Amino acid sequence: MNDRQAILPVLSDVTLVAITSVAIRATVDALQASMERARFGEILLLSDQPPPAGTPSDVYWRQIERLASRADYSRFMLCDLAQHIDTSHALCVQWDGFVVNGGAWDPEFLRYDYIGAVWPHFHDGHNVGNGGFSLRSKRLLEACRELPFDGSDAEDLIISRRFRPQLEERGIRFAPESIARRFAFERTAPTGREFGFHGAYNLARRVSPDDAARVLRHLDPGMLARNEVLELLWWALTRGRLRLAATMIARLRMTRKPDPGR
Fold it and tell me: Which fold has domain 10-198?
């Protein structure tokens, strides 16, 4: 996570932010990796837990209520995030998604209110996109506070699919697929020219074998879905990543606990 760019883009209108009650160390690692590739107007860690020792001093911790489930996380993203953002945009990252190529930043990204990685399994024009690594305008965050939320869907599905037509009627601009593909990748094949990524399966490909095993070994039970664990296990076995494979086998044996917040 330390391939620092020679010239970093200056994103003074963007707040780098992570919101979590789990995987605090890995989340701070994701913030730090992003900070090594771009300069931001502000850097926030919103969590009920304080940052671990060694967290960069320019990461500002703001204490929030514990997010005990994914529904709690989605509710916070929709209803509460806006009050913490003072810049025109927020770059939302998670433990398994961060900036990988500062040189891929395009000021055109700021023309849009929402950009996330493309979801290739949707074919109706509403496939942008994933919220785990996403750029959101303050205007979008304010508009999301008025969306109904019953806990049945993840916040990025609510924004990008369920209520996208209503948001667009209010003037909210979603990036087209061509822009989203340059912004990030998740379930599409990367070109190596994207600004960032999301997904544990992509994380394991980007960091060293030891780092991947360390991060995934210490995740709370329930942080990875069974299909993600199986996918990572197969990938590790086919590439001789035996330590990572052992970590995935151990996770398969864990008793599944209630779904944690991000």
Answer: Spore Coat Polysaccharide Biosynthesis Protein SpsA; Chain A (3.90.550)
